Automatic annotation (TrEMBL):
GO terms for cellular component: cytoplasm. This is DUF2470 domain-containing protein. Residues 202-269 form the DUF2470 domain. It comes from Chlamydomonas eustigma. Residues 53-134 form the Pyridoxamine 5'-phosphate oxidase N-terminal domain. The lineage of its organism: Eukaryota, Viridiplantae, Chlorophyta, core chlorophytes, Chlorophyceae.
């Protein structure tokens, strides 16, 4: 559950009926294998939207030291860690280049999605692996809560693997992603707008959320006690819900196809609600006027 605020069952409202095509209906079947992004994709998404984390290095006595740092990303997706010129971590990395960077969103809804630990090495003595003031790197947006000062140098992490800790995806407590799989994956196209979509549907279109999840779990709308949209990605929705006599759970609701952008996502969510509405109230066309006249005569 995302917050203490409970979205109560909304009153039903009338809609303009528009029956989906048969092709659209058939495409709702057989999507289980591709109904959510891969761990590599989600890991790239989380690292892309955060911008800071905890760098762990080994001190001279072998003790692990965790330090808050900011980072940027280049066009290939490699991570450049920002450190002050005289940071002790630079000396630690000279002695032992092994390190990890834990990245976890600080605010909802992204905080519930996942966290990622990047594991690799930072060579602070390699001229090709560091530069001053982040150069022309494509910076990830810094966290609003970050109080880190501007770094003097950025150092590239040579990635060995990424550890993905699923939040909403409860089936993956920890999943190891290879460096090649991580770097070849693409961040989700909705990563910068997902929070806005979540807020919009929870605050202004809660009825849609109830209808969508009601159809997904095959429970009558009247029996749904709670429903809240948690996250949106290019392949579908995560929704927290609770029915009468049941426990709260997170449900994955896939789109009929991958969405291309925010506008496409808005359309897909609206269509999913429309489909659910039609399943709840099957459309029965009115008999032709000529038939009614014949019957009356």
């Amino acid at each position: 559950m995302m917050s203490d605020k409970v979205l109560r069952h909304p009153k039903a409202s009338s809609r303009i009926h528009c029956a989906p095509s048969i092709i659209f209906r058939r495409s709702l079947v057989a999507r289980e294998a591709t109904n959510k992004p891969s761990p590599a994709e989600t890991a790239r998404t989380i690292v892309s939207i955060v911008g800071d984390g905890t760098l762990s290095t080994l001190s001279p006595d072998g003790a692990p030291i965790g330090t808050p740092v900011s980072y940027t990303l280049d066009k290939e997706g490699s991570t450049w860690v920002n450190l002050p010129a005289h940071a002790p971590e630079i000396q630690y990395l000279k002695a032992n280049s092994r390190c990890s960077l834990l990245v976890k969103p600080q605010s909802l809804p992204a905080r519930a999605v996942a966290s990622v630990s990047l594991v690799g090495r930072i060579s602070v003595t390699d001229p090709g692996s560091h530069h001053n003031n982040a150069g022309a790197q494509e910076a990830s947006p810094p966290s609003p809560s970050s109080s880190l000062s501007a770094p003097s140098s950025s150092f590239r992490m040579n990635l060995d693997k990424a550890l993905y800790f699923g939040g909403l995806d409860e089936s993956l407590h920890m999943h190891e992603v290879s460096a090649s799989e991580y770097l070849s994956a693409e961040p989700d196209v909705l990563r910068n707008t997902a929070a806005e979509l979540v807020k919009l549907w929870n605050e202004e279109r809660a009825e849609d959320v109830y209808r969508i999840v009601s159809q997904a779990v095959k429970v009558p709308l009247s029996q749904m006690l709670y429903a809240e949209l948690l996250w949106v990605d290019r392949l579908g929705l995560y929704i927290s819900c609770e029915k009468e006599g049941g426990e709260s759970k997170v449900v994955r609701v896939p789109f009929i196809r991958p969405v291309l952008d925010e506008r496409d996502a808005r359309s897909a969510i609206t269509m999913a609600a429309q489909i659910a509405w039609e399943e709840e109230r099957p459309y029965t066309p009115a008999p032709p006027t000529t038939s009614l006249t014949a019957v009356n005569n």
